[in-house]
Each structure stands twice: as structure tokens, then as C-alpha cells.
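Table S2 (continued). Query chain:
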Amino acid sequence: MIDMNIYTLDESSKKFITEKLTERSKSEDNEFTTIVNDILENVKNNGEKAIFEYTEKFDKVKITEDNFIVSEEEINEAYTMIDDKLLSVIRASIENIKSFHEKQLRNSWIDTKEGIILGQRILPLETVGLYVPGGKAAYPSSVLMNVVPAKVAGVKNIQVATPVSRDGKIPPATLVAAHEAGADVIFKMGGAQAIGAFAYGTKHVKKVDKICGPGNIFVALAKKAVYGNVSIDSIAGPSEILVFADDTANPYHIAADMLSQAEHDEMACSMLITTSMDIAEKTYEAVLKLTEELPRKDIISKSIEDYCFIMYAENINDAYDMANEIASEHLEIMTKNPFETMTYIKNAGAIFLGDYSSEPLGDYYAGPNHVLPTNGTAKFFSPLSVDDFIKKSSIISYSKDALEKVYKDIVYFAEAEGLSAHAKSIAVRFENE
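Corresponding output:
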């Protein structure tokens, strides 16, 4: 029997729940950081030799220079191994993701006034490394959510890395998704060693400007370690969902949506905030019933027991406050008027409105990115977007007349900071006036 509770929101329960959520984000740094740092240093010094050794050690597969890069023959074979329906769905998903992200594109701009030219130049990154989890499972949706926005942004060199299965192959759906989305090269490598290859470059892996994509604790710590040498998207934590519901919601639907995240892994978090005790109690029963029916029951049971929080709020403002404090990765709003409820929500990665907008719609098909901020970071981070694959340069041009009007102010400001060479750099242009 799964041990679960219904919490009435008060200061004590809020403190307990927020502390439990924080606990999930405390990665075992001390235990794994040394291992990750050693791997990165080895890859930095020994390149693909180190990568092949780690692949054999961790994945029990022998990879060599000859089969390190996925070949055209392997991609063609992958197409024969997936059914036409899956290929059709992948292509439809790509179109939706592409259409959504194209609306995020921004243009460079120039503003001119009286001898002054100011502007912003926007260019795509040259090379990115996209990590796709694999090994035990296939995640073609993660491929699409990373490759498509990079492609839309105009990135010239998109490198994908994903671990191989015990048979030495990458799941066919992953290969097809990467090819359909527009990846330029796919490498058979995973873990911290893949992040090291992206960060430092090897014989075949081009050093990247940015690394994106989720992974396990080793991947997360490796991304954290190489940040600064290259850019990264974020340090992803365990998945989470919060359902915000009133007495009009369907508790069976709520429970199903909560369990859609619980099946990810034991650290995933499934939450409900409701102003109806009846909904809370019925959702509780539905969660227990549905768990027994699902194939990943063992993972779900552990996740639900440790990180499932059904919260009853006597006051709607308490419910809003708690939802904003949690700042969930996924937020489903199942209320009589979800669009009005949304106006009270400040912090969430992705917001799903209404009973027919369940979270997996965003995972696979709708178009908005499913790479989202976790562990409360939706308070200051945003979903992966085209913006993650561009860079901006400021443009500044003053004519002599324009600078002459303001140069004394600049000299004064520089001298106020004690930077006389800065002041001189401006003043020297008018010394003979």
C-alpha cells in the first residue's frame, strides 16, 4: 500500500512541502563530482581514446573510430525499423515545433539619430552539441525539441550525442527523429564523456559554442563543470507537474496526468492544489487505483510515496501563493475559467489550460518546447527556445559632431571612477579643437 497524505495548506505544511521539493534538487555532488571531473580531464587530454574506453566500461559496448559516427547506412536502416505511423507523427510534430519556434525569431535592428547609430546584431551560434538520453530507452521527442529550434535559429553545425544500447546501436526512432529534424552529425557517446567531447573537441567532434539537452546526474554535473568554457542551457532536475483544480475538475483526469510524470523516475514530483476537499479525496483514490494498472508501477509507486503532494487550500489566495512558490515545470489549470486563473500565476515553465490540454500534449506534439525549468527555477528561467541558439552584438557609431556634444560628460564620468585612461581616450579626440 502506497503511503500518501492530503495536506491542508498552512504555514507548517507549506514549509514541509517546499523543503521536500528542495531536497530533490540537491544532487549528490560530493559523491560524483570527482568522478565527473576525472572523466572530463581524461577526455580533454586523450580525446576519443578516452571516450571509447568509457563507452566500453560503462555501456559494455566497443566503439571505435570506424563506427563512432552514425553512418548513412545506419540511418537508412533505422527508417526500415519504424512503422509508417510513427514516422508520420514525428513529421507532424516537427512541423508544429518548427511553426511555434519560427514565431520566436527576432531581427537585427538599427536606430539612427543626429550622427548616432545604435543597434543590435543577432546571429545564430556556429556549432551546438545536443545531448539526448538513451541506452535503456529511446527519446525521439527530446531530439526534436533540441534540434528543431537550433535549426530554426540558423545554427550551421548541429552535433547530436546519444549513448548506445547493449547491442551497440542507437534506437531507430532516435536516429530517424535526428535525421528528420536536421541534425548534421550523430555520435555514439553518452555520459560525462560526451559533454567533455562537446566542450573540448576531439578528432571528429567539433568544439561547440553551447551544450543543450537533459541527462543523468553525471551529464548534469559535467555540464555544470564545463560552463564558462562553453555555454549550456540549464542543469535539468527531475520532472514535475502541478495541477491547479477547483470543484469542476475531473479527479480521474487529474490522477492520470499526475502519474504521467511519476513514471519518469523515482525522483519525479506529482502535485495537486485544489480548493475542493472532495476533489482532493477523489484524486487520492484515483492515484492509488491507476498506479496498480500501469506497467511502470514500481517507479510510480516510489515517486508517489516520496514526492506526491495533494494540497487542499481553504483560501484561493493561499493556492495561488503556493503555486507561485513551487514554480512548477509543468502547470495544468483545471478550473471553471482557466484563462482567468492563469492571470494569477507568475511562475511556471509551461502552462496547460483546460481539461483537454494534458501535459503529454506538450511533451510530444503541440509545438512549444518541452525542455523546461525545474526545481523552482521557473521563477527566473524560461523554456528552451530559439533565443538559446543565437547571440547578440551591440552596434555603436558616433560621428565627430555627435561625440563633441557629449564628450565632456563622458570624461567627467570616467574621471569620477578614477579611470584617467578612459577619460583620455575620449578627450584626446578634441585636444586641438
